[in-house]
Amino acid sequence: MAASSLRLFLPLRSAESGAMWCAQLLRRAPLAAGARSPFRAQSAAARLQHLLEGELEGIRGAGTWKSERVITSKQGPRIHVEGSRGDILNFCANNYLGLSSHPEVINAGLNNLEKYGAGLSSVRFICGTQNIHKDLEEKIARFHQREDAILYASCFDANAGIFEALLTPEDAILSDELNHASIIDGIRLCKANKYRYKHMDMQDLESKLQDAQKYRLRLVATDGAFSMDGDIAPLKEICSLSQKYNAIVFVDECHATGFLGPNGRGTDELLGVMDQVTIINSTLGKALGGAAGGYTTGPKALIDLLRQRSRPYLFSNSLPPAVVGCASKALDLLMESNAIAQTMAAKTTRFRSKMTTAGFTISGNNHPICPVMLGDARLASLMADDMLKRGIYVIGFSYPVVPKGKARIRVQISAVHSEEDIDRCVETFIEVGRKHGALP
Predict the structure, then answer these.
(1) How far apart, in whole angstroms, are the C-alpha atoms of residue 178 and residue 11?
(2) Which among 150, 173, 217, 361 has the fewest CB atoms less than 10 Å away?
(3) Catalytic residue selected from 182, 227, 328, 414
(4) 255 included as an active-site residue
(5) What is the 3-state secondary structure (H, E, C) of 161-220?
(6) Which of 180, 194, 286, 406 is catalytic?
């Protein structure tokens, strides 16, 4: 394999900055004979504190410090934020269908809490499997039209648990360079031969698939929808290449499940390749109720193997009954009617077109993730703060969450936003953008 195909999969830091930080922690200057180390008089804890303070100051100095705003209400299109007065319009939650505070979803959680308790105090294979867990797994498989499904505490855990259990040194995995950090971390845990292809570049993927023909099994891993840029993977082309080179396709559908495709099944349904995608990982913590939990769905033999070998599944407590109840009810509502999901497209188009007309650059393609590209980290942070002062909750994203020079404010449209909500958000962006020089 070419050296370029073996690039290290780092989660959020670049290799360079990670190496520099490690060097700062571990470096010991050579000492002359009899000289005393300047660090011996300083305790290990004190030295660690000094190094951490320097690292944190560097983050502040770069304008990439991330503060956590405190919400004092339920999640929804309108929220209360500590330090702000009145209702705040929320435009940055993953609450795509508005189900996080849906009364039927809340009641389902309360009913399960009363009937099944707060939790299982156990992993699944000891005494942590209730009938509600099996029912939800069956429902997920039916929704995605797959053979079986397995629950995890989060989709991060699902991604951490699949590749190590499935792939060996005889296999190869080919991953989009902008895949989510959880996919990257999961791949790092496995012993398969690792290829990273350029973002949505099918020529590069084909080249690496050709090189990977020497391995027993080839798996192409991609996000269905990329959460930072709002673009959708070219699954038709990926599936076509995978068929040509005898590879299986894995798709992370966290930012697609529930609202993309005619019935909300995700990008494989949207693009007409449900029968060509072998494995789907997704979350219960976004469109499907917003509480917590993730899953893998696919062939029954794969799910059986994960129950035996997937470490996050084997060594993590079962999903709490209340979370199971909320997610199960969210799936019921979705399978009963696709009306909520179908409202997303028009609202997304409304926001994107109005922002583009105003002069902003919006990344992605017809996805409710609408990144307002600003470039400068400080500008993104200042504009987000001023938006909040005007009653609009958005967050600026900068390095290391996104590449340097690619700072943005990520706006997310929800089915429960009204047209008036969207128009007010656009008007506020224009006002704040002009104030800070992002618009003429």
Answers:
(1) 10
(2) 361
(3) 227
(4) yes
(5) HHHHHHCCCCCEEEEECCCCHHHHHHHHHCCCEEEEECCCCHHHHHHHHHHHHHCCCEEE
(6) 286
Active site residue 214: no
Count of positions (residues) in the chain = 440
Does the annotation mark 414 as catalytic?
no
pLDDT 10s digit of each residue in the chain, 440 long? Answer: 443 343 334 443 343 444 444 445 445 455 555 555 555 667 999 999 999 999 999 988 876 777 889 999 999 999 999 999 899 999 999 999 999 999 999 999 999 999 999 999 999 999 999 999 999 999 999 999 999 999 999 999 999 999 999 999 999 999 999 999 999 999 999 999 999 999 999 999 999 999 999 999 999 999 999 999 999 999 999 999 999 999 999 999 999 999 999 999 999 999 999 999 999 999 999 999 989 999 999 999 999 999 999 999 999 999 999 999 999 999 999 999 888 878 888 999 999 999 999 999 999 988 999 999 999 999 999 999 999 999 999 999 988 888 889 999 999 999 999 999 999 999 999 999 999 999 98
Specify burial of residue 3 (Cβ count, 10 A radius: 0-12, 13-18, 19+).
Answer: exposed
What is d(CA 48, CA 76) in angstroms, rounded to the nearest whole number? 41
pTM value > 0.70: yes
